[in-house]
Design goal:
This protein has 225 residues and is mainly alpha-helical. It folds into three domains: 40 residues, no CATH class; 50 residues; 110 residues, no CATH class. The chain contains eight helices and two strands. A hairpin with a 5-residue loop joins strand 1 and strand 2. The termini are far apart.
């Protein structure tokens, strides 16, 4: 750098005495130059690095103000983890799974399609390995088939959870399977769960099983026999 610290020597070996404060100020001035900061991370990255450093220090063991020992380390870890979680949430937003509450089963401007049409589309997507689309269409086929059999009353804007709850009252022996199918659909269509052949087959098999099941009479407002 452009300064000599305390204790430096001249070319002839004579010591140079630089005041400590002057040396510190010179170092700070040198480090403020842009060349030292052009590759520095952003504010969030620096904060995350700081949190990770504090966690490492806590793991090594902290002392007093919280009582020292493992309890203090644990408390500090919890606080830092919460802070880190908040920072990441502010940066990346809420998880996609939050969309589940408003995710409609049938979307788009087109009119109602038959269960057979949805099944055909699901099979085509499955043959192409497009498992997420296959799962969507197969779940729609399952619910549309229940509407065609009047187990469910046709209703625009229905969610998979709502369809499963209503159908489960008319098909009580399969209520749990319907609820699981709705959760699977939501997790794939509106959450972050990857779709695969197993998920598609599970819905296709349930669709076939329900087609062979006779509904029971339920009070007005639910499914009908």
């Amino acid at each position: 750098m452009g300064f000599r610290g305390e204790g430096a020597l001249l070319a002839d070996g004579a010591p140079v005495e630089t005041p400590r404060d002057a040396a510190r100020d010179a170092a700070h001035e040198e480090l403020r130059k842009a060349v030292y900061h052009q590759h520095e991370p952003g504010v969030v990255e620096r904060f995350v690095d700081w949190v990770q450093h504090q966690i490492s220090r806590a793991v090594d063991g902290v002392s007093t103000p919280l009582g020292g020992g493992g309890n203090a380390a644990l408390a500090l870890l919890i606080v830092l983890a919460l802070v880190l979680g908040f920072v990441l949430w502010r940066r990346y937003g809420a998880p996609r799974r939050a969309a589940r509450a408003t995710g409609k089963l049938f979307t788009g401007p087109e009119g109602p399609r038959s269960a057979a049409g949805h099944r055909a589309d699901a099979a085509a997507h499955a043959a192409a390995g497009a498992w997420e689309d296959a799962v969507r269409e197969q779940m729609r086929a399952l619910v549309r088939a229940l509407e065609e059999r009047t187990v469910l009353a046709p209703r625009p804007g229905r969610t998979a959870d709502e369809a499963a709850a209503e159908a489960g009252r008319a098909l009580p022996d399969h209520a749990r399977e319907l609820a699981s199918a709705a959760r699977l659909f939501d997790d794939i269509a509106f959450g972050d769960r990857p779709a695969d052949e197993r998920a598609y087959r599970l819905l296709a098999d349930l669709d076939q099983t329900l087609g062979r099941t006779r509904p029971v009479a339920v009070p007005a407002g639910g499914g009908t026999a």
